[in-house]
Amino acid sequence: xxxxxxxxxxxxxxxxxxxxxxxxxxxxxxxxxxxxxxxxxxxxxxxxxxxxxxxxxxxxxxxxxxxxxxxxxxxxxxxxxxxxxxxxxxxxxxxxxxxxxxxxxxxxxxxxxxxxxxxxxxxxxxxxxxxxxxxxxxxxxxxxxxxxxxxxxxxxxxxxxxxxxxxxxxxxxxxxxxxxxxxxxxxxxxxxxxxxxxxxxxxxxxxxxxxxxxxxxxxxxxxxxxxxxxxxxxxxxxxxxxxxxxxxxxxxxxxxxxxxxxxxxxxxxxxxxxxxxxxxxxxxxx
Length: 286
Description:
The chain has 286 residues and is α/β, with parallel strands linked by helices. It contains 12 helices and 10 strands. β9 (217-219), α9 and β10 form a beta-alpha-beta unit. The radius of gyration is 20 Å and the shape is globular. The chain starts with a helix and ends with a helix.
């Protein structure tokens, strides 16, 4: 709040639902500036889960301020229609504008490796369920023409230590740790399949990064606005058994894999390029 007072902005743009949302809304209301809040995750506009005894106070205060911010933001931008529907159901508001995730269109030639690379990208924490990808690699271990790669910020505690130990036992699985965006994109350039095992997301940046590079996405649960299924640029598997089956299908069926990848690239360029977002952003801040 002190920082906002020092800057004295005319417009505040705030992303990610947290206490900052409410603090920004309080400042905006008092100062006469405008607050634009951009939804980052579906969970931000869902009713709060019951906090544990350990985090009850901090979680309750955080959510209280977030709810105040949602109700008092001047403009709310969503990533998907689903988020707008959740906002309407839970807060009796709707998104003023939808601005999807945007990424630069790769200007270089995309060359795929001969061996099928199956990637998992994300912070290694329980919400992302990385253990399911480890289980997947173990289940498909006999497929000698495929390698499985994980990348993302390490987790912590006993849970992560045990996961790392299990990864080390699998010859077809490699964990690369946290990489830069450029390094992630270079891996996607030569890869064939991206797997998502998260419990929920907003609109994952990795989906768009993959699509831009002709990489179909196979997701256990997450499919924003039914895009994977509707546009035929990946699979939403639903169960672990089906996840294994869908990955196996794409590994073995080069024609299907390339068709999906090409459709994904066309879709991303038409709907998620930075160039296509410019007019929406100008209108939003105007």
